[in-house]
Amino acid sequence: MKLLRSCVCSLAMSALVQSAAVQPMPDAAAADQDAAGVQVENWASEQRLTFESTTLGEQRRLYVRLPGGYHSSSKAYPVLYVLDGEFFFRQASAAVQFLSETRFIRNHPMPEAVVVGVVNQDRNRDFTPTHAPEQGTLRFPTSGQADRFVDFLEDEVFPLIEGRYRTQPYRIVAGWSLGGLFAVDTYLRHPDVFSAYLAISPSLWWDEDMELAQIESAVQAGALPSKPLVVTLGAEEGGDMDRTVRNGIKPLLSDARDANLAFEYIEVPGEGHTYVHYKAMLDGLRALYRSWVMPDSVSEAGMAAVTEFYEALSTRYGYPVRISEGAYFRVRVALVEQGREEEALHVAQQAVAEYPASSRARAGLGWTFLQMGDSLSARRGYEQAIALEEAMPEPDSELLLSYRRHLADLR
């Protein structure tokens, strides 16, 4: 039945990709000028997709945030799927933008990513794996449809996003509370749906701690999934959260002797259940990408070691990972410090070839020429860097001051 539904959905998805209503988010209209003469520009990096779900039999909505350079590049990106999108889409987008796009950070701790917020219709229904209508004093009359929600994601949401945007085959899910329960349950029972899992304060007390029983069985059988799982909890959370997370899943997985297990637990200081999400999202994404930042020992060993490091990243994440601009910078500086200026020049030229629109790459080439005593070529590099930076939509004033200072010293 599942196979039949998948076949039917695959035939219909090309039409769905084309027919989904696409609206810019409220702050993404065209540029305008107000009565006071102030130019107002609303950026079109966010979209809202609305479509009819055949799996769930209802209208569903997604919020999508594209990386800042999406429209000016041909790159493909991993995708972060954020549950409770109406609450947490903007928080997750801010975390991804800071960790992957902020220009004053040279060594970004994660790659740029498409962020998709999945907006709820009935979270109690969609995030819970079993029908448990009474949980103490709480009532969940529609609970138990998590498997159908997985079908919705696989049959409709993923094809829609991957058909409309340039994406890599790497999906992360992030969920809080019942959404965290869904993340852990999917990790255990359907591990291949996502590439990595972030469970923020997961409600593992659900249905008499059923998830903990499943984890214990998987640990004993040596059958834990190999997909990365990060679980976070606010330091102020107690009661059932303390029992099932801090004293439940944490020791169960931390003590598991499984070479394939990729688990990390994070305690978020000073936060309870309600306010933990924002900090946990930032810390959780960094944890999922612990291996992303290149160690100093690699940059000091030269480009062969750097190439090997990025080949290993590509294998780990399942798609070709490009050598970052920051990696070229670190190798170039290390080679100059080692007195290997000719090799450093070659690396600087590689950086310019790989990142032709980057003012930093051009300035790096100028700096390298300066270390070699070629003032004329150094001056040309800084002049080109200034021109590139001034052409940016948001020029970095600190970079421009630095480039102009170097250029003035060369005159």
Terminal Cα span: 75 Å
Poorly predicted sequence stretches spanning 5 or more consecutive residues: 1-12
- Alpha-beta content class: alpha/beta
Name the strands of the widest sheet in spatial order. Answer: 1-4-5-7-6-10-11-12-13
* Global outline: globular
Residues in β-strands, percent: 15-25%
Helix fraction bin: 40-55%
Number of H/I helices: 15
Instruction: Report the order of strands and helices.
Output: HEEEEEEHEHEEHEHEHEHEHHHHHHHH
Gyration radius over CA? 24 Å
Sheet of most strands: 9 strands, mixed
Total number of strands: 13
Q: Report the mean per-residue pLDDT as an integer.
A: 91
What does this structure look like?
- With 411 residues, the protein is an alpha/beta fold.
- Helices cover 50% and strands 16% of the residues.
- It contains 15 helices and 13 strands.
- It has helices at residues 2-19, 85-101, 123-126, 146-164, 178-189, 206-221, 239-254, 277-288, 296-301, 303-317, 325-337, 341-354, 359-371, 375-390, 397-410; strands at residues 21-24, 32-33, 39-40, 46-53, 58-65, 77-82, 114-118, 134-135, 138-139, 167-176, 196-200, 229-234, 263-268.
- It has a 9-stranded mixed sheet with strand order 1-4-5-7-6-10-11-12-13, with helices on both faces.
- The longest helix has 19 residues, at 146-164.
- 37% of the residues are buried.
- Residues 1-12 have low confidence and may be disordered.
